[in-house]
Amino acid sequence: MLPGQNKVGIVETNKHSLYMKGMETKKQSVLGAGAYEPKAVEQGIYSSWEKSGYFNPDNLPTEKDAKAYVVYMPLPNVTGSLHMGHALDNTFQDITVRYHRMRGRKVLWLPGTDHAGIATQYVVEKELRKQGISRFEIGREKFIEKVWEWKTEYGGRILEQLRRLGCSADWSRTRFTMDPAYAKDVQKAFIHYYERGWLYRGYRTVNWCTRCATSLSELELEYKDEETNLWHIKYSDEVTVATTRPETMLGDTAIAVNPHDERYQKLVGKKVTLPITGREIPIVADEAIDPKFGTGMVKVTPAHDVLDFEIGERHKLPMIVVIDGRGKMTKEAGAYEGMKSADARAAVVEELTKQGRIVKVEPYPHRVSVCYRCGSSIEPTPSAQWFLSMRELAKLAMDAVHSKKVAIHPERFEKPYFDWLGNIRDWTVSRQIWWGHRIPVYFCKNKADDEKSFVVAETAPKKCPHCGTCEMEQAPDVLDTWFSSALWPFAGLSESDKEKYYPGHTLITARDILNLWVARMIYSGLEFMGTAPFKNVLIHGTIMTKEGKRMSKSLGTGIDPMKYIEEYGADVARFAVVWQATGQDIRWDETAVVGGRKFTNKIWNAAKFVLGQIEEGAMFPVAAGALDAERFSPADKAVVESLSKLKKSVAHDIETFEFAKALREFYDFFWHEFCDGYLEASKAQLANITDAPRTRAILMHVLYESLVVLHPFMPFITEAIFDKLPKKTNALLLIEQWK
User: Fold this and answer.
1) Cα–Cα distance between 71 and 52 in angstroms, integer?
2) Rounded to an integer, what distance in angstroms lies between the CA atom of residue 668 and that of residue 414?
3) Which end of the chain is more exposed for a tag (fewer CB within 10 A), N or C?
4) Per-residue pLDDT tens digits for 97-112
5) How many other β-carbons are positioned within 10 Å of the β-carbon of residue 648?
6) How many angstroms separate the Cα of 552 from the Cα of each of 83, 145, 154, 470, 557?
7) What is the dihedral of CA 61, 64, 66, 68, to 10 degrees?
8) Distance, CA of 550 to CA of 546 (rounded, Å)
9) Whether the model pTM is above 0.85
């Protein structure tokens, strides 16, 4: 609250202007005598920005031939709330769009939210369980209604928090990945891939979440370290295998060795009897086997390991399912039927011990795969799924980066990008949940046993082409969330927007979705639009705890950026994340928050001093003629030259995504060269009747230019000060030209 006022408010006095109530008298700073109070101004300033309409590029006062500059917002989940990663990522994006908007470009920052199939279904199911209801009791249609109700009530929370952070996205173009127009484009993409022969239905071993009861791609898995054992099991005098999962041996259909492993070459082609079951299984040679792991002999269970499935396909091995989708042993497991897999493991080990087949047991640190949403164990399981062939699409994505049509910054992230695409498996795109884009596939009811009795189409055929009589039934599966988000740069856009704003320019995101999302957007853009969706991808570091561990709300190590915004204002929160983002992962240090708070006060106090010197009739920006360079004192010359260099340097840093470097350069100039240096020198010059006019002009020039340069980083305080400048070019700093 400003001194001498009972209440400070922001009122709009014309379409694009905002003014604080309580104007001070001449020679007393219009900013008041107290410290900067962000709570007093931020809401009103943001309201003024939104009402101006300038977040929408179609409303910007740009030149007729101004080029578009498009930034795509990484889609926050509709279930999400702002975390430190969002704060960093979206501050970087906002710096970029504010800068390019001030450079006279038609800037579009496309915002939206992702329907987050598994995550959202999990949240709504939890709410239903509190009421003693399961989704199966109310049925699919009613459950989807419940999800939409939840989305209406809670789904916009994170976008409101982004507004609090100061994000200047074009909210009028906000999309949701389940919007009707978006859904239509998703359907078309599925049909397009099918007609190209790249989308097929197959019975394969997939990663299966036992809680969510759905398939997952390998990129949707997370891993936790677990201390387990490596059991060495003697199958025969010549065959001993090492495994961390003895219970799966009940489904073994081969033993595999590396073809170059001289120890076992003579055994290839022979058979061995599988303990407990008594079945005979072959010994095969396969390049995928690591001769250094365990004994160099590996049990092959095609039904319960993705790599084993691929070995099985190469050697035409049968699949025996001994663990079902709930994580329980099947009839094929014999005496262990109905047991949980963990219990069966103990029972199998006990039986093998009795038979004298356990040769050795050694502790083994194991990385166990879990569902990225619910944290439940993954159980590889055979299932009929829809797969997208990746060979041609991966080549598109690799060629785009090899040819530099898409540049990844920093370049070191090209390696994981190429490594993944170069060794990619076909993508399992179907999911066995209810919330999401239902696949446009219709099955014949009368030929349910015929796996080829289906039609891929936007709507069910009026007449079944297979039996001629049934009303075809839509497949229950939905598409992987990443399938729809891969279309984000263009799906659901109007034709005019596609023409004006596709392709875009920049994507800023975290490294953990480089392959999940970035690569998929690149090949989707090339396949459907003929052009890569963006030219530059900035991959930034991750904000960690002070100890260098990943932040986790569930473990109590997460930090809510809203607490900083509430207590110190959005500019301080933005300052703190950018200040620490020097290229590597960030070990969060709260001293940057303290530094940001001190800096806002320094800016405010310096502005108060300068505005207190302004004579009636002063104009901003200062006319070039008012800066009489021939009469500059050494202090005048030093500060003006430093400011000129700073402006060029910061512009270069923003355009090359060196945001922390740019902020630190500005900080050093403003705090040390301007405040500590020139402001002190100016006091003596202002006392001299000859030097005073020139000194005032330089003070006004430096303040104005500093507001322009700092605005992308700290938009609220700069806009609040800019509002007090008399006779300025624009009512809002938001669209002031960076020249």
Assistant:
1) 20
2) 34
3) C
4) 999 999 999 999 999 9
5) 10
6) 10, 31, 21, 51, 5
7) 80
8) 10
9) yes
Cα–Cα distance, 402 to 531 (Å, whole number)? 15
- The domain 215-371 having CATH identifier 3.90.740.10: the answer here is yes
Given a cut of 50, whether residue 14 has pLDDT beyond it is no
Alpha-carbon gap, residue 7 to 98, rounded angstroms: 31
Phi-psi region of 107 (alpha: psi -120 to 50; beta: other; left: phi over 0): beta
Tokens 């110190």, residue located: 568
Query: What are the C-alpha distances in Å from 195 to residues 191, 198, 388, 690?
Result: 6, 8, 12, 81
Find the radius of gyration of the CA atoms of the chain: 32
Nearest Cα neighbor of 368 from 244, 511, 247, 230 is 244
Retrieve residue 19's tokens: 């003014």
The pLDDT value given to residue 437: 97
Q: By C-alpha distance, which of 671, 689, 686 is closest to 636?
A: 686
Helix (H, G, I), strand (E, B) or coil at 472: coil
Residue 9's pLDDT band (cuts 50, 70, 90): very low
User: What is the 8-class DSSP label of residue 16?
Assistant: T
Could you tell me if 460 and 441 are in contact, meaning their C-beta atoms sit under 8 angstroms apart? no
The CA distance from 705 to 610, in Å, is 13
DSSP H helical ranges for 279-413: 306-314, 341-354, 391-402
Q: How far apart are CA 199 and CA 429, in angstroms?
A: 9
Q: Could you tell me which CATH number the domain at 10-53+563-735 has?
A: 1.10.730.10
Strands 441-443 and 454-456: antiparallel
Strand 254-257 versus strand 280-285 pairing type: parallel
Q: Where are the domains of the chain?
A: 10-53+563-735, 215-371
Angle between helices 692-710 and 715-722 (to 10 degrees): 140
- Report cis status (omega within 30 of 0) of the bond before 489: no
Q: What is the mean pLDDT of the chain?
A: 91
H helices then E strands: how many in the chain?
A: 21, 27
pLDDT grade, residue 583 (50/70/90)?
confident
* Three-state DSSP string of 269-318: CCEEECCCCCCEEEEEECCCCCCCCCCCEEEECHHHCHHHHHHHHHCCCC
- Which tokens is 621 given? 């920006």
The answer to whether 376 and 370 have CB atoms below 8 angstroms apart is yes
| Nearest one of 123, 227, 118, 111 to 162, comparing CA atoms | 111
Mean pLDDT, rounded, for 53-70: 96
- 226, β-bridge pairs: 366
The kind and range of the H/E element at 710 are helix 692-710
Count of C-beta atoms within a 10 Å radius of residue 556: 7
Cis status, amide bond into 410, omega within 30 of 0:
yes
10 Å Cβ neighbour count for 422? 10
DSSP element (H, E) containing 219: none
What residues have CB less than 8 Å from 734, skipping those under 6 apart?
Answer: 49, 52, 54, 98, 101, 168, 711, 715, 719
- Rounded distance, CA 585 to CA 162, Å? 22
Q: Which residues contact 224 (CB under 8 A, 6 or more apart)?
A: 367, 368, 370
